[in-house]
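Minutes, methods subgroup
Present: GH (chair), OT, SY

1. OT presented the first of two proteins processed in the latest run. Sequence and structure tokens recorded below as shown on screen.
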Amino acid sequence: MPSSEQGGRSWWPRCFGHYSEFIVQRWKLVTLMLCTYGFFKELKPSEAFLNPYLLSRTNLTNNELSSSVYPFWTYSYLLCLLLFLPLTDWVRYKPMILLESIGYLGTRVLLIWGSSLQDMQWMQIFYGLATATEVAYYSYIYSVVSREHYPFVNSAVRAVVLIGRSTAGYLGQILDNTGALNYRQLNIFSFVSISLAFFISIFLPMPPHRQTYTDSTDNDSTFEVSYVPSPFSSLGKNIRSFFRDVREIFRDRQVLRWSLWWALATCGELQAGNYIQNLWSEISPVVYYGYVEATATLLGAGAAFLVGYISLTWSIWGEMLLGVISCIDSFALFFMAHTGNIYLAYGLWLIFRATYALQITVATLQVAQRLRKQRYGLVFGINMLVALILQTVLTAVCTAHYSPLRLKITSQFVVYGCYFWLIGVVFLAAGVYSRTKEGWKESWIRDKENRRLMRDLGHADLCEPLTRRPDAALLINTSGHDMDSGDEEPLDM
């Protein structure tokens, strides 16, 4: 009898474990499931009309929303990320994806049925919870596919999110213009879409602790997933392991450089995106936010998907490209702050969002390809944590109601433009210095040889200039293991 009871109690976990193993072995299927989840969680046609909706529903002014409501998202995002950062890898991503859905559902509930200032502040807190766990969505896929598939799945996962946002923007604008749905009904539509995403997330397989898998479409393609210990097994040991992994990961100069730009640029993008509707409301009452956001994300989706097919030695030219794009973003933000033409402001925002989507996809791929351990959530989370700390500083200085400056919305965007200009100058100067130190001719030759080698191997440039490595042919292998030695000196650019 005890044996029977024990068998009954273990039936569900055992069956779900077999299901997860079955799904994980089919990387295309799990990628499709994750992309479907990502599409529906972003299919929120009400998102582009948050500011006009709050202005009409709560009777708050534009300045009150800017100083007393929106900053709560930044603070919640930062606090939740501090809490979830050490847990994301340990719980193996899926619980965080479920929590992300719950956070978005809570946000919609408060938007639909709340109306007071406190309700809207709690709405932003729930939204911060959801966005803080989003790092698990982007980290999950790397734990269930082999390294050789990273370029495709990285582009697909990010592109489908952008496609979902663009679809939501166009759909929301059409429904609003035709009068089919009002702002509150658009929020109900978003609630239903997020509920579907939550349902799909339940069936995502749990990444395994440690096992070698064979790709069902290619019996020669295997990969190993590393064991990630429970956070409750040994607190002291896990804390030491956490800081040891951080030191090991960021000792790689390429990871450090890409992560630095990632954190700095994401801070600026989040801050500008959080207040762009306030700026548009200041310039003109004309509301085409849905079309603009949809077009911006669609352009970003195309740029993100093309990254997987671009043959470029990012480790040679990446820094300079980061600098140039950051300067372009700087000019876009600066002119948005000074123009009185709403359509010009819309166009500049399209440029800003598309260029950011391109480079953040590249940065994500470059960092993921160089990690030697399955701690993607840790690295991505640390980058977001740094971005949020910087964003909190910007919020406290520029926008919060207790800020001594309390800058007008146009002055805020001047500050954001100067911020991106500083990033661009630093990275462009660093890139020019590195290429001058090595020699421009040598860099071109190495770039040409590297791209030729990668074409011969049948892969895009994923990591580093392979011509500097005697074991170049082994860097991308059927086992998906990184052949790099952990004791090797990281490559200089």
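2. SY then presented the second protein from the same run.
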Amino acid sequence: LFRSGQEAVYAAAVQPLLRAFLRGYNATVLAYGQTGSGKTYTMGAARAASTSEEEQGIIPRAMAEIFQLIDEKDLMDYVVRVSYIEVYKEEFKDLLQVETSSKEIQIREDDKGNTVLCGDRKS
């Protein structure tokens, strides 16, 4: 996917996860790389509202598709919870609640063996 457009990255890396998510699986999308490598651009967090459709990143594309697919399945009820966490130098930052201290956010394993975040805001 090197030098691919936003749509190609989304279709190859995220869309299969999204389909599994809507079948009941947990899904995580992680952007990893050096400072300045394009993580924020790829995720679509910077000025998403003023970005052209072609340049939209993973987050706006995924949210639009999730709610479109939920709307199409009007016989089912869904609860969608989202965490938006930045990990930098082994410290966590909750981007949905920036006043949260990184010491309050911890990665744990629940009683079913799932990896979960504790202390973050889920919206």
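Chair's summary of item 2: Strands lie at 85-88, 91-94, 106-109, 115-118.
Next meeting: continue with the remaining queue.
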